[in-house]
Design brief:
Its main location: membrane. This is TonB-dependent receptor. It is found in: Cell outer membrane. The chain is 8% helix and 46% strand. By secondary structure, it is mainly beta. Mean pLDDT is 91; it is low at 1-33.
Length: 984
């Protein structure tokens, strides 16, 4: 065959083969696209990215990348795949049937596309027109934190969180957002956990939290009506994600040390002070021992924590299950908290993905060993020369007992001879069904149940020093709280041209029911049974035992709606309304309307700012909303009767039932009207971003109890609406990335907040409700006086007391004679300080170097005053001998004054704290069982810089008498933690 013919046949063979491939290739392509699109998602360094959301833009199906960056998603040729992840620019890519669709994502400083929970829905950050702060796990405080509230301390401008119980592992948190808005109602924010209004924090494992959104202003919170006045904190927990399969294990161990304790006299100093104050009388007060009472009642607590989570699933069904155990100990012996938590969430799609069902089950069981905080006070005041034990004293059980001083008990005996235990079981279950009628229009039904059961048991033996002679006392209290919620809603979202509309409307029904039972008995033959045979006590047949039970319920019904409008990503508007009724209010005011409106203008999208290279985002916001406060307890509007004494009637003894309250059919919720003006900004492509908010909130119809005449009233007081209180302030949040290189990143956030409050009024003379002032706070024992005074036109939190000028030649205190009449009495009191800070600061930092990370948070409060109750009582020699005193009393050897409330003990409580510092190392593995490993070390409450002479200046700001350092105290602790996180 000639060479030309050979070349022709070869060309024909190639042409036929190429044509055949062209015909066959679509078949292969169709086979691929009819199955799945798959690939690997990496960052700019080529490292795999986990938890990237991969979504089919046409079908709405979604999955997420696993620990190695892999994904699989059903797709057809021509459909668009969208890749999104927090901290990265969103990316879209058309699926053309390729075998592998690999994506490299680019780091973004902008957070405008981040999802924000706005209550009954979500929006992107760029669309938000209210004051809302969103925190992700990377923003949370690190370390040994057992309560979700602890994650937020110092992380949200305007949110004040304190822990009055110090290091007590069973102590809670006081939370106040934008100041005090009530005189007698609830002061804490509403918690919404996975859509459950009023969810139980005890059931939430901090490792399972996906995000926390804080709704601060009225326009954001108004959709929650009568529970939104004090703000709303929305907690969203982690759920399974399609395409993600794995096991996660976390564990840590912590040890605590006392950060600071009150410095009283040791045995040697005590003897020296006795010789100085009472020369020649040492033998009366020296009992020859050298006892450190603080050491006798304390321990070095060790906490341990274990968490195991499993997740997996497809686009049609996915799950996440987690179980964890936390064992925590307190500084005081026998103070403990042991908690077991379990959680299962599932997402199921049916009917061609039109129906989505979300299930959520949580269970928590907590065992608590409580400690009496008076034990710490008794240890402080105890004579250090007294022994702990006296084997000859059989009446006291072999403990040393001194019956001389008033309220003076052996703290070791108090600790050893009392069992104080609590057990709590909390079940939370919810389900949400969402059906897509058409694209963008859904209908939903959501139901939940919270069942909280508790049993508290206490037994004080015959040797318990406060109750010697009772032959043992047993106490049992049990209760159950049920909270049921049903919500039906419909939501619609449509984008057409430059217009984007989101709308939601719904109905909510919530019913709560609480019941308790309690019994007390004493005088037992033996201590063997403790509280387990409470009926055996001798007080019962003598009619001296106690028994009580109670049951109550309340109902909330609401209709709500909201519309969010976005015009060309420039002009934003949100309008909402909640029409709500509460069983807690009077017949004439059970229902109320809570409207809100907010507007936004994204100026950075206007043509006149498009060419400003350093400006990446600028938005102006203005919002106004009305919220309520119905957290007042049940039946306050009704005529109630009390059980009175027994009388003889017609030869029979019968109970009497006198009035316990007056009816008030006009009782209504406290109503807060809030105006918020704010701006959000981003500079240098989002490398610097922040927000500034100014607010004015007026709370009207404040609830208080007023004296009324009898008759015509049946009872001598009436709980009713009268007053007004105003809060105003400014909040600044500034975030920046000062350094960003291939190996080093530094993220920093600075917070500033300032709040001012004023009681506008609390009297209505025309209606007969007259008050000149409110005297609040109380110092007991030998002082017995009030500490705070609330006046119209003045702020809450004023310490009103005698002004200390010095010590006279005889060693007695000199006070200012305010009215110049030569007599020092209560009329000479003046304002000596205020418990609320002038401003607060926080400075949080996260630094990443290769696989290492370092985070720390500095937090400060400035201009707040504190009443040092321990100096008031024990910085003098009045108690010396019978009790111990402060070492600082020796600095005033000539002082002869007694324990007395004055400005001498009002101290500057400003402070700066290194709240949290953590260092960690994280590495990933491309092969093997372990996918990701992280080890870390954390220190909490590392140091405090303050002039305050007491234990800790960070005190509760709740109520009308804030800023008093508790007489019975529990010291704060420094906590050091070593932890491990492993993904399989």
């Amino acid at each position: 065959m000639t060479p030309p013919m050979t070349r022709l046949l070869s060309a024909l063979r190639v042409t036929v083969l190429f044509a055949s491939l062209l015909l066959i290739m679509p078949l292969f392509s169709h086979a691929q696209t009819a199955g799945t699109a798959s690939g690997v998602v990496t960052n700019e360094k080529g490292e795999p990215l986990t938890d990237v959301t991969v979504k089919n833009k046409e079908t709405g199906l979604a999955t997420s990348t696993d620990a190695k960056g892999h994904y699989k998603l059903a797709a057809k040729t021509g459909e668009t795949i969208v890749f999104t992840a927090v901290g990265f620019e969103a990316k879209e890519s058309a699926f053309t049937g390729q075998a592998s669709l690999d994506i490299q994502m680019i780091l973004s400083f902008s957070k405008l596309e981040e999802v924000v929970v706005v209550g009954y829905g979500t929006a992107t950050k760029k669309e938000v027109t209210s004051a809302i702060t969103t925190l992700k796990p990377a923003d949370f405080n690190k370390g040994n934190i057992g309560n979700p509230v602890g994650l937020l301390q110092g992380r949200v401008a305007g949110l004040n969180i304190s822990r009055p119980a110090g290091g007590d592992v069973n102590g809670g948190f006081d939370i106040q957002l934008r100041g005090l808005t009530t005189l007698s109602g609830g002061q804490g924010p509403l918690f919404v956990i996975d859509g459950i209004l009023g969810g139980d924090l005890n059931s939430v494992n901090v490792d399972e939290i996906e995000s926390i959104d804080v709704l601060k202003d009225g326009s954001a919170a108004a959709i929650y009506g009568t529970r939104g006045t004090n703000g709303v904190i929305i907690i969203t927990t982690k759920r399974g994600k399609a395409g993600q399969h794995g096991i996660e294990f976390s564990s840590y161990v912590s040890v605590q040390k006392v950060a600071k304790k009150l410095r009283n006299l040791n045995a040697e100093e005590f003897r020296g002070a006795i010789e100085q104050v009472y020369p020649g009388r040492l033998s009366e007060f020296d009992f020859k021992a050298n006892t450190d009472w603080f050491e006798e009642i304390t321990q070095t607590p060790i906490d341990h924590y274990y968490d195991l989570a499993m997740t997996g699933g497809t686009e049609h069904f996915n799950y996440r299950a987690a179980v964890n155990y936390r064992g925590a100990q307190g500084i005081v012996k026998d103070n403990a908290n042991k908690r077991l938590q379990g959680k299962v969430t599932m997402t199921q799609k049916e009917f061609n993905n039109k129906l989505t069902i979300n299930y959520n089950l949580m269970y928590a069981e907590t065992d608590r060993d409580f400690t009496d905080q008076e034990i710490m006070q008794q240890a402080f005041r105890r004579n250090p020369t007294e022994p702990v034990y006296d084997p000859t004293n059989t009446l006291a059980g072999g403990y040393y007992r001194n019956t001389g001083p008033f309220q003076y008990y052996n703290p070791v005996a108090m600790l050893a001879e009392e069992v104080d235990h609590g057990k709590q079981k909390t079940f939370t279950g919810s389900a949400k069904l969402t059906y897509a009628l058409i694209k963008g229009w859904n209908v939903s039904a959501f139901g939940s149940l919270i069942r909280d059961q508790f049993k508290n048991t206490k037994y004080q033996s015959r040797y318990y020093p406060i109750g010697i002679g009772n032959n043992g006392t047993a106490i049992i209290n049990t209760g159950e709280n049920d909270n049921k919620l049903l919500e039906i809603s419909t939501d619609y979202r449509k984008r057409f041209g430059k217009h984007d509309i989101q709308a939601i409307a719904g109905y909510s029904y919530q019913h709560g029911e609480n019941e308790t039972f309690g019994a007390t008995n004493s005088n037992y033959d033996v201590d063997l049974y403790q509280f387990n045979n409470i009926g055996a006590g001798g007080a019962l047949p003598l009619g001296q035992a106690l028994m009580s039970s109670y049951k109550e319920s309340n109902t909330l019904i609401a209709f709500f709606g909201r519309v969010i409008y976005n015009l060309n990503d420039k002009y934003l508007a949100q309008v909402s309304l909640r029409h709500e009724g509460s069983s807690r209010f009077g017949a004439n005011h059970k229902w109320g309307n809570f409207p809100a409106v907010s507007l936004g203008w994204r100026m950075s999208n206007e043509a006149f700012l498009q060419n400003v290279p350093w400006l990446s985002d600028l938005k102006l916001r203005a919002g106004f909303g009305v919220t309520g406060n119905q957290d007042i307890g049940n039946y306050r509007a009704l005529q109630l009767l009390a059980v009175g004494g027994r009388v003889l009637y017609n030869g029979n003894w019968i109970n009497t039932y006198p009035p316990a309250s007056n009816p008030n059919p006009d009782l209504r919720w406290e109503k807060k009207e809030e105006l918020n003006l704010g701006t959000d900004f981003g500079l240098f492509n989002g490398r610097v971003s922040g927000s500034i908010d100014y607010y004015i909130r007026n709370t009207k119809d404040l609830l208080w109890t007023y004296a009324v005449p009898v008759p015509p009233n049946l009872y001598n007081s009436l709980y009713t609406n009268v007053g007004t209180i105003r809060n105003s302030g400014i909040e600044v949040t500034l975030s920046a990335t000062p350094i960003k290189t291939a190996n080093l990143t530094w993220n920093s956030t600075f917070l500033f907040s300032r709040n001012r409050n004023k009681v506008v009024s609390f009297s209505n003379n025309d209606a007969g409700f007259k008050l000149t002032d409110l005297k609040q706070g109380y110092i007991g024992a030998d002082v017995q006086t009030w500490t705070h005074q609330v006046l119209e036109g003045q702020p809450v939190g004023n310490f009103t007391t005698l002004i200390f000028e010095g010590i006279d030649a005889n060693g007695f205190p000199i006070y200012t004679d305010t009215d110049k009449n030569g007599v020092i009495n209560e009329n000479d009191r003046q304002v000596a300080g205020n418990a609320y800070p002038k401003f607060q600061l926080s400075f949080a930092n996260n630094i990443f170097y290769k696989k290492f990370d370092l985070s720390f948070n500095l937090r400060g409060s400035f201009g707040n005053d504190v009443l040092n109750i321990h100096r008031l009582y024990y910085e003098n020699f009045g108690y010396l001998g019978g009790k111990n005193i402060l070492l600082s009393a020796l600095d005033y050897p000539g002082y002869k004054g007694k324990a007395e409330y004055s400005s001498r003990f009002i101290e500057d409580g400003s402070y700066v704290k290194l709240d949290n510092i953590s260092i960690g190392y994280t590495t990933s593995f491309s092969e093997g069982v372990v996918k990701k490993l992280r080890v870390y070390a954390t220190a909490q409450q590392l140091f405090t810089i303050t002039k305050y002479k007491g234990v800790d200046p960070e005190l509760s700001l709740a109520g009308l008498s804030p800023g008093i350092d508790a007489y019975n105290y529990y010291p704060r602790t420094r906590t050091f933690t070593l932890g491990l996180n492993v993904s399989f």
